[in-house]
Design goal:
The protein is mainly α. It has two domains: 85 residues; 110 residues, no CATH class. The protein contains twelve helices and no strands.
């Protein structure tokens, strides 16, 4: 079997293939920054965007992505990495808009490591999305508990009434040597209480 090494073809596969595993495998081999930019501009698959975002480091490319990417979270992540926007500005602007708040959370989840400037905004956004009962953002919320989690956020997830978040809280606590149990005394938000 012949190995696929054509960078343009890899970019096309990363954008168009229906199989997410194939898209990710193509991206692992893609190194051309211009083609990575094309993928980052067109893609909306979260796993694809995470890989692309980790491979891009040119400020001019990131600035272009901040204005042109199809995915709103990629636009936010590119803008913060390029220094065009601060995390404080992102979360303040998003605080009144549930969709924008979810996009800000997803942008933080595209980073492979903690962005200290985003720490407070991430925690506040997670609590706000628990209150809104936004199931579409659960994958990002789980990822962000693992990156940004603390005992307060763990308790919020554990006691919010949403089973996936409760399970994530158990996993987070167990991995850090905490004993946990659900209760009604230690949470700032109930799932969907602001609907």
């Amino acid at each position: 079997m012949k190995k696929l090494t054509d960078q343009a073809l890899l970019a096309k596969v990363a954008i168009e293939d229906k199989d997410p595993d194939v898209r990710r495998a193509a991206l692992q081999k893609l190194t051309d920054q211009a083609l990575l930019t094309q993928v980052g501009t067109a893609a909306t698959d979260r796993d694809v965007l995470k890989i692309v975002f980790q491979k891009l480091d040119d400020g001019a490319i990131l600035t272009r992505l901040a204005g042109k990417a199809a995915d709103p979270a990629m636009r936010v992540a590119a803008a913060t990495r390029a220094g065009v926007r601060t995390w404080d500005a992102v979360f303040i602007a998003a605080s009144a808009n549930p969709k924008a708040l979810g996009d800000a959370l997803e942008a933080a989840a595209l980073y492979p490591d903690v962005q200290e400037e985003a720490r407070s905004g991430v925690e506040q956004a997670c609590v706000a999305l628990i209150r809104r009962g936004d199931e579409s953002r659960i994958p990002e919320m789980v990822d962000l508990l693992n990156l940004y989690g603390n005992t307060n956020l763990c308790e919020d997830y554990l006691n919010c009434g949403q089973l996936v978040l409760e399970s994530a809280a158990h996993d987070w606590a167990t991995a850090r040597g905490y004993s946990v149990w659900s209760g009604s005394d230690s949470h700032r938000a109930r799932w969907g209480s602001d609907r």
